[in-house]
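Figure 2 data, in text form.
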Amino acid sequence: MSKHGKKYLEAAKLVEPGRIYTPAEAVDLVKKVAYTTFPGTVELHMRMGLDPRHADQMVRGVALLPHGLGKQVRVLVFTSGEGIRLAEEAGADYVGGDDLIKRIEEGWLDFDVAIATPEMMGRVGRLGRILGRRGLMPNPRSGTIVQPADLARVVRDARKGRVEFRLDRTAIIHVPIGKVNFENRALMENMAALIDAIQKAKPSGARGQYIRSVTLAPTMGPGVPVELSGALAMPAA
């Protein structure tokens, strides 16, 4: 029996077996193979020539997508003193310290990005098991532990379309780049910005071919293989 339903199989017929699509063709096609009744997410999947078992081959960083992700990003800031005023003025949705930590320990997780100032990390650290497995734990490598003077910039970036990428245990990076109802140009420019950020984050231990393959995929629907040379040559805005 097939592992996929009828809608998936019908959509899969639009992807020619063995064909590798140019970035422009792939963006156009990924919108056609998405079969959700709502504007689903488009994700970029990159198979990397890295071994995640080695620390010097890990990749982690952030990218600013010029056209955002098509959703409202809820920003939480752990801070104190002057940082509270700065975060609130920057438009953070939730700002505080022990009060927010307690709410999270009780099961509240209605936010998309968590940012912290350094003095809070001694207390925020105990949330590691809760936030870590959801990718929400503030971390200096992802730029989410910042000095109060940088709060306004980081909060604004998070709202604009700041996405985090990291190598998973199967040596793949997968990151959303927008919605299927975005204009093709917006998806292309978001994809270019993400690929550029990942290329710039190449770790010191990388050997051989750094990026091996690129695929675009909708929330529900088949993946569309993208021509690697074309993807790597896309100019970032």
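Caption note: The chain has nine helices and nine strands.
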